[in-house]
Amino acid sequence: MNDADYIVVGSGHNGLACALKLAQAGHKVLVLEQADQAGGASKSGEVTIPGFTHDLYATNIGLFLGSQIYQEMKTEFHQNGFDIAVSDQPFASVFPDGDGIGVYTDAQKTIAQFQRHSNHDADSWKALLKFFDETAPHFLPLLQMPLPSWPAARQLYRMWRALGYAKTVELGSMILKSPRQFAEYWFENEKVQSLFIPWAFHLDFGPDVSGGAQFPFVEPPLDHRNGMAIAKGGISNLIQSMVKTLEKRGGQVLTQHPVEKVLVQNNRAVGVQLANGNKIHARKAVIGNITPTQLITKLLDQETLPSAYVERYRKFRYGPGTMMIHLALDGPLSWKAGEDYAKFAYVHIGPYVEDVARTYSDALNGELPASPLLVVGQQSAFDPSRAPEGKHTLWVQVRALPAKPQRDSLHEIGIGTWDQMKDAYADRVLKKLEVYAPNVTQQIIGRTVYSPRDLEVANPNLVGGDSVSGSHHLDQNFLFRPVPGWSRYKTPVDGLFLIGASTWPGGGLNATSGYLLAKQLLKA
Amino acid sequence: MKRYDSVIIGSGINSLTAAAMLAKRGQKIAVLERSSWIGGCIRTDEITLPGFKHDVFSGWHPLFVTGPAYGELKDELHKNGLEYVNTDVPTGVILPDQRSAVLYNNRQKNIEHFNRLMPGDGDRYHEAMKYFEANSEMIFTLFGNEPMSWAAIQSVLKSLRSKGVTEFTHHVGSMVAPTRKWLDLHFQNDAIKALIAPWILHTGVGPDDAAGSIMAQLIVFTLEAASMPIPKGGGSELVKAIMKIVTDNGGEFFTNAQVEQILVENGRVKGVRTLDKSEYHAQFVLANVTPQQLYDKLLTPDQVPAQVRKDAQNYQYGRADMQIHYALDRPLDWKDEELRRAAIIHLTGGMNGVSQSVTEAANGLLPKEGTIVLGQHTSYDPSRAPQGQHTLWIQLQEMPRKLAGDAAGQIDTAGGYTDQVVRAYVDRIEERISQHIPHFKESILKRVAISPVELERFNPNLVGGDPYSGSSSVDQFLFWRPGTGYKRHETPIKNLYHIGASTHPGAGLGGTSGYLAVKAMKG
């Protein structure tokens, strides 16, 4: 029987960050991955035509570049094959009348975009940046702290002292707003408002859900300042650089090693049992980079857990699902909004706030949306290594779809399994895209569609195709993530911990939960 | 120029509560109301036919009867002739497929009723209510006090101490969940979910909004405990009884008296001036208005700090409301007989239906199948209509404030809320009621509809027809209502207090903001 100090179940980037930090301190770390490739939702591959590299799910690595693990280990990551490609045209939105609005890293260019729609909104954009600059240094560090914790309390107290009562409370109100309230608070033009709404959708916030303003408030200023970053040559290069760095420190990642059970003795996790029956002993702890749902439904015997705990985990709620459409293109898209739009890292197509609201409500009510929100990623525009010369990849994320549709809001697609529906639905998506980029159909030379179901099959953390492993609504965010009272990565079983997107600070390539847990374990 | 101890701008429930409490303290009070009636959103009038007394706007008094203001005033109110009547069925629901459910003012009956609809749902309901009750102290304290007060902070600390951090965060986490999550976790039967889901509309939010969970629990708990008290003879009976407390103590009421300016001297309030240039001087002024009216109109820019003015300008409004009043020659003959005694019945497509209509309204559309709130005052207060005949109070809570279209694609809304649009929409509502009450249209003696636009015309606090004077989502609640600059209903002007639905604890016929302002006043 094999053994290790720490066993990490799941090789998402948080699992790897945790393993790296533990290995750095001299511990023997083993990462077990059920899939045939490490990375969880950070994975790239040639899934359409050879020579075209697609980021299968996650792509934007902005948060990762701000993470502590990256700050500590970047030299090694870069030595081991990780490189960054940055777009100075981070994101845009396009509209049916052939109009668009985009955010550049260039301040003047961006202001000109806002001015084209409304002088008031151009001033508001400047005011928003100013408000962000005043407040961000005080609240952004909170996103990398355990909650609840003394450092976080100290940070809040310092914020109170620095900003004063009124501004602190104003910041609180800003973050608690719904995306629509946030957009209407700052901007008057409907196209400008629509530019901010999709960012909330990335974390399962429809336009009218309170608390959804957080991401639309934070991401646009950060993108404007830093540009949008991806891993050159595909996000697997980032993962591989982490794996190699880990291996150099004596750690090991075993793919195709699905864990069947966490072994518990006297309420202490002592190891895991693999699907093939082999048992691996963990001297110090078992760390699950998984959802709470898998923990209670599969890896542990429910009877061994306190019922109140199981009950709370049972209540953990997932957001609507995501569909990924990967296209290999013969040439760039000709956007109606202008040639320049082929260079934006993300183009969001709602198009308007109202459309996104309807899509979200449809998804919650179990209907296939008539006009889903599209996030169109154009990675090869600023990372040419991803496609043969002159050709392009296209990454289309379709938000938000019901995990189990009951009806089609257009009464066109027969309801069946996602396998039966996904191609028809992808056709609807491409028809929508065609309105904005009329040449898309003729440019397609390869297409691969992943339905919400496919997402979950490939990665059981994406329950129902929820790409962020659990809704981020207020009751499941901050110190309530994944469930209130268990936000600091512990479980009722001693020596068993939970990290990943289901835990604070949630979805996105932030590499925080794994890092924070490792620090906590090393201190103990 | 006239001199008073306190002048109150506006005569809604919070003004009346404050007036009565201050009058009892011996203050000389003037209440100035721009409209022709006293009461704000409380108004009983024969707006359809003689003999039919309709509560034109708000119509239900459970919040008032369970609130602190009533506790302080009830003896005198009843001495002054106020009488409450009540029913044992506070609410019911009817779904498009004719399924129905009701809530009784009796826990045991509710458990049995729910268990009959779906075995286990009644037991889970009981568990949920027990949990709410055991943990309700903090909630009731927060809603009955200033959020930044010792009482509120102590109740939070007490809850934290008794539960420990883990249980406390769990408790708070479950409070901020949306209504949908709470309902999905406790009930399997759609009719029971539909019975509760539309009640969240009465708090101004929707089923997917944060903190709906705690509001839904609070409402169901209150409905079961207090049912649906209404003043015998109409809501205005409460107004009359409060007015008598004030006038008995030397106070005065002025209608058609619109305040155009709050007078300030050296940062301290001096009184008010009305449109006809009369001045009413006083040591204290309480303004029952929206933040925009207070800080943009009634005060001059130099009197208001920039942050406060900005907060006021950015104060956001919620969905609009529309009211329809009917005089009927007979009661609504619901097939489910329990519904005949119900105070408020929702005709709704259930949780998904409410969610869809809320989204349509937020998008500016007339909902295709919006929730219909049917109030049956005369089912337990027959004094409000001629014998054998009835009033019907209908509220449509999912109306767009800025009308942009019709979700059903049938009504041309290009001209806004015109008579034609209102008539067409009311027809849609009547069609749906007729699916359940076959002779409904024949029973109508007269109908009067009040559109969102007319609501605001009647009462400028209802901006765009928002009956709650401001969105009630969490970013505008507790510490954030109405703005971030001032606590405890105080304002930048000394002795000027801000009350009404735009201030903590928000909308509802409760009188709590008036009560809290008086408690905060010194002198």
TrEMBL record, chain A:
It comes from Brevibacillus invocatus. Probable oxidoreductase that may play a role as regulator of mitochondrial function. InterPro entries: Amino_oxidase, FAD/NAD-bd_sf. GO terms for molecular function: oxidoreductase activity. Residues 15-394 form the Amine oxidase domain. It comes from the Bacteria. Interacts with COX5B; this interaction may contribute to localize PYROXD2 to the inner face of the inner mitochondrial membrane. Pfam families: Amino_oxidase (PF01593). This is Pyridine nucleotide-disulfide oxidoreductase domain-containing protein 2.
UniProtKB/TrEMBL annotation, chain B:
Probable oxidoreductase that may play a role as regulator of mitochondrial function. GO terms for molecular function: oxidoreductase activity. Interacts with COX5B; this interaction may contribute to localize PYROXD2 to the inner face of the inner mitochondrial membrane. It comes from Brevibacillus invocatus. Residues 16-397 form the Amine oxidase domain. This is Pyridine nucleotide-disulfide oxidoreductase domain-containing protein 2. Pfam families: Amino_oxidase (PF01593). SUPFAM superfamilies: FAD/NAD(P)-binding domain (SSF51905). InterPro entries: Amino_oxidase, FAD/NAD-bd_sf.
